[in-house]
């Protein structure tokens, strides 16, 4: 049974990804802050055909990340085959009106949290020379796609795209695949839609190396 770690798994896209992985007979370790929601999700995942466990903590905290990764490997009984980075927050407002706490909190979750988990997991995947890593980004993080009031959120997603561009170059010649999923028009896409996009990345063939999957609604 393959193993996966999903950050931000207690709700939304992360929760939908956990269920889809469970349907594919994965052992899933769910990371989040809402323990009650994760307990319910464990039941849903196991009903769907997989195995699931969870850990409570802050993705942007290095001590929590170290502890949670140890817990995850114990539950999975191995280095994860898949890492899905879906934890994140969105704070919006015109420049000059956004509190600096909102700026710091958004970068902590959306950028620091991604980097911390990559920092922990990539060396283990390198040692095994296999793995799939996917981050849930956004179309507003792509060049020319930022929106008014989204300067903070857009810049965090642009940072994630840059991190993964570097990571992909670092992983050249290995059997580890890393990329991003960039939903657009989030109000018109469901978490299940995005989870399906994540699965297309997880299940790509050995001869493919997907970089960035852009998801748009059918009727724009």
TrEMBL record:
PANTHER family attached to this UniProt entry: DEHYDROGENASE/REDUCTASE SDR FAMILY MEMBER 7B, DEHYDROGENASE_REDUCTASE SDR FAMILY MEMBER 7B
CDD domains: SDR_c
Top-level taxon: Eukaryota
GO molecular function: oxidoreductase activity
Organism: Sphaeroforma arctica JP610
An example Gene Ontology CC term for this record: membrane
Keyword Oxidoreductase assigned: yes
Keywords of the record: Oxidoreductase
UniProt protein name: Uncharacterized protein
One Pfam family, short name: adh_short
InterPro entries listed in its UniProt record: NAD(P)-bd_dom_sf, Sc_DH/Rdtase_CS, SDR_fam
Job of this protein: Putative oxidoreductase.
Family to which the UniProt record says this protein belongs: Belongs to the short-chain dehydrogenases/reductases (SDR) family.
Leader sequence residues: none
């Amino acid at each position: 049974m393959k193993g996966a770690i999903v950050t931000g798994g207690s709700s939304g896209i992360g929760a939908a990804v956990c269920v889809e992985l469970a349907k594919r007979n994965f052992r899933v370790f769910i990371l989040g802050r809402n323990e009650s929601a994760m307990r319910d999700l464990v039941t849903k995942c196991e009903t769907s055909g997989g195995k699931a466990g969870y850990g409570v903590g802050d993705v942007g905290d290095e001590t929590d990340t170290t502890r949670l990764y140890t817990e995850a490997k114990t539950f999975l009984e191995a280095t994860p085959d898949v890492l899905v980075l879906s934890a994140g927050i969105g704070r919006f407002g015109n420049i000059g009106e956004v509190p600096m706490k909102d700026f710091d909190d958004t970068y902590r979750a959306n950028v620091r949290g991604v980097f911390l988990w990559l920092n922990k997991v990539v060396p283990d995947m390198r040692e095994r020379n296999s793995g799939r890593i996917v981050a849930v980004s956004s179309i507003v993080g792509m060049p020319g796609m930022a929106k008014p009031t989204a300067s903070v959120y857009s810049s965090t997603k642009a940072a994630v795209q840059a991190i993964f561009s570097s990571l992909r170059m670092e992983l050249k010649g290995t059997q580890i695949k890393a990329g991003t999923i960039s939903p657009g028009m989030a109000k018109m896409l469901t978490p299940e839609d995005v989870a399906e996009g994540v699965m297309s990345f997880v299940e790509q063939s050995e001869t493919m190396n997907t970089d960035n999957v852009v998801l748009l609604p059918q009727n724009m």
